[in-house]
Amino acid sequence: MAESEWRLVQAYNDLMAKADPRTADWPMMSSPFPSLFICLLYFYLVTKTGPKFMENREPYQFRKILVVFNIGMVGLSAYNLYEFLMSGWLAGYSLGCQPVDYSNSPQALRMASACWWFYISKFIELFDTLFFVLRKKSNLLTFLHVFHHGIMPFSWWFAVKFAPGGFTTFHATFNAFIHVMMYTYYGLAALGPAFQRFIWWKKYMTKMQMTQFVAVTVHSCQLFFIDCNFPKLIAVWILSYAVIFLFLFANFYVQAYRKAHKSKREDASIANGFTNNNQPHQNGIKKD
Questions:
Q1: Three-class SS of residue 3?
Q2: CA-closest candidate to residue 84, choices 13, 147, 168, 18
Q3: Which residues have CB under 8 Å from 177's CB, separation 6+?
Q4: What pTM value is reported for the model?
Q5: Which of 47, 52, 89, 152 is the most exposed place for a label (fewest CB within 10 A)?
Q6: Residues 246, 211: contact at Cβ < 8 Å?
Q7: 261 labelled catalytic
Q8: Are the beta carbons of 163 and 230 closer than 8 angstroms?
Q9: Residue 173: is it exposed, middle or buried by C-beta count within 10 angstroms (0-12/13-18/19+)?
């Protein structure tokens, strides 16, 4: 074995030696490679194989499946939220420094289990994108959506492996709440036009997601100014993730709502015989 390879193996072994022994034998936790493989496969399927497979096919209709899937995801997200609250955030956790409890106490093990279920839920959520591909909803296959879904499972493997609880779970608790709301929206949308009046709050979902990332950014920054027994590398990753997605979601909001709203106002002005600077156009139609 070459020296560089030996050092790489040694570094991996040293890293694994720091893992939480409580989660070592849990499903999918012995190695990061199954999670990495699934995430890479996901990227390949939704960006290459899936669109090519659907290129000359009619969109599949999954209304009943989507209703059941989204109801199930509401239930799983609500369960994740409840467990995070009852095993930590409503059971003595602090918004300041909150180390991981690595003991075998019932509360600590309950929190570790909550983290594992949250991690598993991120794999189930990958089906969102697969449904988009099979339904030929290419407008929904944004970089934001694919990147966000594709890195979460692999990222959370490290959280469960090394820090299943404590400071890590602030953003997960927030995320579980957001997903209760999001899958409720998806479920109502899947029921058809008769339920459209119940999903008027679509754009507020993006605002809630941006609020989430602002809160996580502020919460994460404090660890660099206080003495806290929590892995700094994980804190850096959480902060980086929050900042990146805050900008991505903010850009999505501007593109999807602000510019769309401005375009509608301009179209309305033109339809009434005026541009947005009150200059009349013949027959109410703007000429090229």
A1: helix
A2: 168
A3: 77, 81
A4: 0.85
A5: 52
A6: no
A7: no
A8: yes
A9: buried
Q: How many residues does the chain have?
A: 288
Q: Which of 148, 149, 171, 219 is catalytic?
A: 148
> What sections of 125-231 are H helices per DSSP?
126-134, 143-162, 169-190, 202-221
- How many other C-beta atoms can be found within 10 angstroms of the C-beta atom of residue 264? 10
The Cα diameter of the chain in Å comes to 79
Give the DSSP H or E segment for 29: none
Query: Coil, strand or helix: which one is 229?
Result: coil
A 10 A CB-CB count for 208 gives: 15
- Each of the 288 residues of the chain gets a pLDDT tens digit; together they read 567 778 888 887 887 888 999 999 999 999 999 999 999 999 999 999 999 999 999 999 888 999 999 999 999 999 999 999 999 999 999 999 999 999 999 999 999 999 999 999 999 999 999 999 999 998 888 888 899 999 999 999 999 999 999 999 999 999 999 999 999 998 988 888 888 787 887 778 888 888 999 999 999 999 888 888 888 888 888 999 889 988 888 888 888 776 555 555 544 433 333 334 443 333 333 333
**Closest C-alpha to 105, from 88, 117, 128:** 88
How many angstroms separate the CA atoms of 54 and 135, rounded?
9
